[in-house]
Design brief:
single chain; alpha+beta; Beta-Lactamase; 3 domains; six-stranded antiparallel β-sheet; 14 helices; 42% helix; 24% strand
Length: 486
């Protein structure tokens, strides 16, 4: 994005007018902050940009930034909107009820919101005429450095979980950018590090659906610390898997992946688990003789830094380097970059969730239009079986009707092909389960309910009795239709 990052372009303004809180507008907002940081925008100007831009994005009446100057004191550093001038420079005790929402976000280190405000509890918010309020903490190195507060003066039920998720990402990005700004300009080395941190921020927007984002963050961290190897572990189910490898050469990366067999992966997974449990970076002395990577990395101090989003947990493993142990400042940088990694992953999760929901909605509308154009019942049920199985992700689907107390299957679909079948469920508990289920008493008015299941270990299908499909294996979807007799 060209031009002054502190101004809103005509293109951005058009996006905001059409849908101020759309995913496209959200991505543009994240990129806008990254561009401003990359251009060396001072911290105070970056906070002012954040307040102005997020106020417009969320369509709220005011955005305010509390800076945590000590464990017990908050300073009103910047604001935009209602009573902004009064807010700037305000100092309050963090334990006062008047700032309960900001103090709660800082203490719990998570975004909180309150609709239908109680004026007696949120005294300062009441002074600002707020009817609903949201606060998102700025967390860096597992310490809250402040909180961004958003308020709405007319809608008592304005805030929702989607806004909270986006506010968490925005505040997390601002916190990381501010910390990156703080760790600058002492020497050429610090200048080099700042440049790399800005590149990490840019990498967030490179491919929001791809693990390439995570790999880019890991690679910049490796360059930043001048180490040979950085690995990223992500929790999957009950254990951890190797999600990304950043190495000084493609040969080293291939060797690392090859050696992460059961023993090698267990070593890395144990370190990741310890870091996640600790909730902060941990340091572990390693020797080539004690782990599967052997001579690929030198002996020394390994750092495991955890990261967390609403859906994902993991840790970045920074392996020892020839230059020696990492300094306290470098360990602080590790926390900053893992904060960027958490923002990148959370952004990708939000993007993918929205895209998946939009795709499912498009499918349902397409199916509804197709089925609505069919006038023949037989053709309708045949096509319904096919589309239902495909939409739900099953290899087989079938539909049957109750006829004289018998469940008669006539329509089926298998592997994307429609089939005419003639199959009756034999007497037994499965037929009883289909016929006697609670929804059966409504069968005069309802065409039936689709039932889906995967086979049990014997290969038998659990929905609607034994599968009318050709043989065991695969997943089936079945439905029971209505019957003209009571």
């Amino acid at each position: 994005m060209g031009g002054d990052p502190l101004t809103i372009s005509a293109e951005d303004a058009a996006v905001q007018r059409n849908n101020p809180r759309s995913d496209v507008a959200f991505q543009r907002l994240l990129l806008k902050f990254s561009d401003a940081a990359a251009q060396g925008t001072p911290a105070q100007d970056l906070i002012r940009l954040f307040c102005q831009a997020t106020r417009e994005f969320f369509q709220v009446d005011g955005t305010y930034f509390w800076q945590r100057v000590s464990a017990d004191e908050l300073l009103g550093a910047e604001a935009d909107g209602v009573m902004a001038e009064r807010f700037r420079g305000t100092r309050v005790n963090a334990n006062q009820n008047s700032v309960a929402i900001a103090a709660e976000a800082i203490q719990q280190q998570k975004t909180v919101y309150e609709n239908r405000l109680d004026p007696a509890r949120y005294l300062m918010a009441a002074e600002y005429r707020a009817r609903s309020i949201m606060a998102a903490p700025l967390v860096v190195s597992h310490e809250a450095m402040g909180a961004a507060v958003f308020l709405h003066c007319s809608d008592p039920d304005f805030f929702n979980p989607d806004m909270a998720a986006k506010a968490t990402i925005l505040a997390g990005q601002l916190g990381s950018l501010l910390e990156a700004s703080r760790l600058t300009q002492v020497s050429r080395e610090e200048h080099r590090r700042t440049k790399i941190l800005a590149e990490v921020a840019q990498a967030i927007h490179a491919a929001p659906q791809s693990t390439a984002v995570v790999e880019a963050v890991a690679d910049r961290l490796r360059v930043l610390l001048r180490t040979r190897l950085v690995c990223m572990m992500v929790r999957e189910g009950g254990g951890f898997s190797l999600n990304a490898v950043a190495a000084e050469s493609s040969q080293l990366a291939a060797s690392v992946r090859a050696r992460h067999d059961r023993r090698g992966l267990q070593f890395a997974a144990d370190l990741a688990s310890r870091a996640v449990a600790a909730g902060e970076p941990i340091s572990v002395a390693i020797d080539p003789a004690t782990h599967a990577l052997g001579e690929l990395v030198p002996p020394g101090m390994l750092i495991a830094a955890p990261f967390r989003t609403s859906q994902t947990q993991g840790a970045v493993l920074i392996y020892p380097r020839q230059e020696g142990i990492f300094s306290a400042e470098e360990k602080s940088l590790i926390s900053v970059v893992t904060g960027f990694a958490a923002v990148a992953i959370a952004n990708a999760e939000l993007y993918n969730t929205a895209r998946a929901r939009a795709y499912e909605l498009h499918q349902l509308l397409d199916i509804s239009a197709e089925l609505g154009s069919i006038g023949q019942l037989d053709e309708f049920l045949q096509q319904f079986a096919l589309r239902a199985a495909d939409f739900l992700g099953f290899g087989r689907g079938f539909i049957g009707l109750l006829e004289d107390g018998s469940f008669h299957v006539r329509w089926a679909a298998e592997n994307g092909q429609k089939k005419q079948v003639d199959f009756r469920l034999p007497p037994g508990p499965r037929r009883a389960a289909v016929i006697d289920r609670p929804s059966a008493r409504y069968r005069r008015r309802s065409p039936g309910n689709v039932r889906c299941a995967r086979p049990d270990r014997s290969g038998r299908h659990l929905a609607g009795g034994d599968s009318p499909g050709p043989g065991p294996g695969g997943a089936s979807c079945g439905g029971a239709g209505g019957h003209s007799q009571p």
